[in-house]
Amino acid sequence: MKIDLQRYQGIIFDMDGTLVDSMPLHLKAWQLTAQQFGFDYEHDWLYSKGGTPTLGIAKQLNVRQGTNFDPQQLVQQKRTYFDQIRHQVSIIDATFELVKVHHGAKKLAIGTGADGRTTDFIVSTLALGPWFDTIVHADQVSAHKPEPDTFLLAAKQLGLEPKDCVVFEDTATGVAAAKAAGMDCYLVEQGRITQFFTP
Questions:
Q1: Cα–Cα distance between 128 and 88 in angstroms, integer?
Q2: CA nearest 57: which of 12, 115, 135?
Q3: Is position 46 within any domain?
Q4: 171 and 144 share a domain?
Q5: Which family is annotated (predicted)?
Q6: Catalytic positions, written as ranges
């Protein structure tokens, strides 16, 4: 589809599944965690929770499946599995090409639901830091996607109004957060930019 970013002063990218191909790694870590704890591994539901911090997913999983696991134990085990494979993360070309094209001409940010530890590892591993003016992760906001706080903080740190920013996201949760922030949003699906949404 045609991507027209001319009218925006800032571009905010989600990280997992949008800027970097890490969602399969997160899902594999959840699958292994499900096997260990004995709950149902729901691939599509877990994918839809992209942008939600791991602790939030663990709590929602208990409600969804009627289980009573210690959310912190689920988080710790999922992170352990993810840490074993996280080095396999790679760039998504379609969105990173936009980063390269607009770097220096527009203000660029990452707004992710990943925690600071995971964000720092991925940003460092893929040398993303120099490309972005600011990076907002889950530890920096109290309300997470689909709430708008992540994107609103990113816009604030860029020194821009929400209406002057556009978001790239890969899940309905992320799109909802962008809309709630008053920002236009492009959807990324399987490494391709496929749809455009307005608030």
A1: 15
A2: 115
A3: yes
A4: yes
A5: Belongs to the HAD-like hydrolase superfamily. CbbY/CbbZ/Gph/YieH family.
A6: 14
Beta pairing class for 134-136 and 165-169 = unpaired
Domains in the chain, number: 2
pLDDT in tens, 70-119: 999 999 999 999 999 999 999 999 999 999 999 999 999 999 999 999 99
**Per-residue b/e over 163-191, b at no fewer than 16 CB within 10 Å?**
ebbbbbbbbebbbbbbbbbbbbbbbbeee
Cα 183 off chain centre by: 16
Q: Quote the pTM value.
A: 0.91
- CATH number at 172 reads 3.40.50.1000
Q: For residues 48 and 169, is the Cβ–Cβ distance under 8 A?
A: no
Report pLDDT digits (tens) over 141-192: 999 999 999 999 999 999 999 999 999 999 999 999 999 999 999 999 999 9
Determine how β-strand 184-189 pairs with β-strand 10-13. unpaired
Enumerate helices (H) and strands (E) in the chain, giving the number of each: 8, 6
14 and 93 both lie in a single domain: yes
Two tokens, residue 40: 């149902």
β-bridge mates for residue 196, sequence order: 186
> What tokens were used for 76?
């710790």
